[in-house]
Structure formats: C-alpha cells, structure tokens
C-alpha cells in the first residue's frame, strides 16, 4: 500500500502542478485576447479608413471633373455671349456712323425749313396786318415738338419791350 500512496501522492502533485500551469495560462488569456482584439480592431479600422478614403477620392474626382466641365462650358458660353455682344456693338456703331451724315443733312434741312416757315410767317403776318387782321400764331418748336403760341396784342408787346412773348 505504500506504493499506492506514493503513486496517489505523485498523481495529486502532478495534478496540482497541471492546475497551477493551467491557472497561469487562463490568467494570461484575457490579456492575450485583449491584445488580439486591439490588434484586429486597429487593422479593421485601417482597412475601413483606406476603403473610405478610396471611395471619397473616387467621388471627389468625379465631382471635380464635373465642376471643371461645367466651368469650361460656362467660360465658353461667356465667350460666345461676349462675341455676340461685340458683334452687336460693331453693327450698332456702323449704323450710327452711317446715320451721322444723314443726321447732319436732316439737321440742315430742318434749319432751312424753320427759316422758310419764319419767312413765310413774316410775309403772312405783314399781309394780314395790311388787311387789318390779326397776325397768325407762329409755331414754337420745343423738345416735345411744335406748339402754337399766340402773339400778344400790340399793346402787350409794347409793354414787354417790343418783343413777342409767350402768354
């Protein structure tokens, strides 16, 4: 029975040693799991961040290209509008230059017509005064157009310094 007790004691000691080793391994296990989880989380975050950056870079590239295209279209449209405006300005300038001699001629004709009207008016007024009638009114030309102004009677004209005034 001595051998059995020694074998049982050795078995118990060996069992106790195995339990101690197992206990130490289990005690280190949470730290190992925690380190493994941290390492995997960091790797996962790095992969996710890289994927997000690639996705963002793709979208930013497409947005940038579309904005550049839009800007180029706007620049081209502005060039076309400016060219059309310059063309219209040149046409208007050409028309104005073509109209200048005509405007000068029309102004000269208008001066001559006014001079003729005044001369005819003086002749008509003189003829009416000889007949003893009242003189006809002379059209007065203003910015808004011609209007008739009656000459004051001779007594009023004498009081105003002899000039024909407007009422």
Provide a descriptive summary of the structure in words:
There is one protein chain. This protein is mainly alpha-helical. It has one domain (2-122). 81% of the residues lie in helices and 6% in strands. It contains 2 helices and 2 strands; from the N terminus they run αββα. A two-stranded antiparallel ribbon has the order 1-2. The longest helix has 130 residues, at 2-131. The chain is rod-shaped and about 180 Å long.
| Helical content class | over 70%
Strand/helix succession? HEEH
> What distance lies between the first and last C-alpha atoms, to the nearest angstrom?
160 Å
Mean pLDDT: 81
Instruction: Note poorly predicted spans.
Output: 148-167
Number of continuous helical runs: 2
Largest sheet, spatial ordering of strands: 1-2
Q: Class by helix and strand content?
A: mainly alpha
Instruction: Please give the radius of gyration in angstroms.
Output: 57 Å
How are the SSEs placed, and which strands pair?
Elements: H1 2-131, E1 138-142, E2 145-149, H2 154-159
Antiparallel strand pairs: 1-2
